[in-house]
Amino acid sequence: MPSRRIFLKNAADGSGVNPELPHGRSLNALEFGCLQYFKRCPKLIPNLVIYTVRFVSTFAVVFYHDPMFALLALIGMPVSMLMSKTLLHRMKGNNERSAAMSAKMSETLIRGILQYPDNQGI
Predict the structure, then answer these.
(1) Which of 70, 73, 100, 104 can bridge 62 by disulfide, Cβ–Cβ 3.0-4.6 Å?
(2) CA dist 94 to 12, 32, 108, Å?
(3) What is the pLDDT of residues 55-66, one digit of tens each?
(4) What is the pTM of this model?
């Protein structure tokens, strides 16, 4: 299946050729997507380097002070990452049910107050 071509329109002449590209060639969808991604995320590579260095240095400090704890934490990290998505979905569902129950209880309380306006207990 031939790759889909995206022709970048030149606003001046509408020729479908991008003057910024060598020989005015067109971009395929993958090249175009990569260009758009890196235009939006110019800090991706520096952030990746920074967070990798931070992780390695923190792990080295923990490993220096307590190697067993560092190894157990490293082994448990994939389990935590896999479980976090499941637990977040469960917590979201519980929060929604709790909010619905709270709204229902508030509605019942307001209806009770409106039904008996002489109620001085509240």
Answers:
(1) 70
(2) 57, 42, 21
(3) 999 999 999 999
(4) 0.40
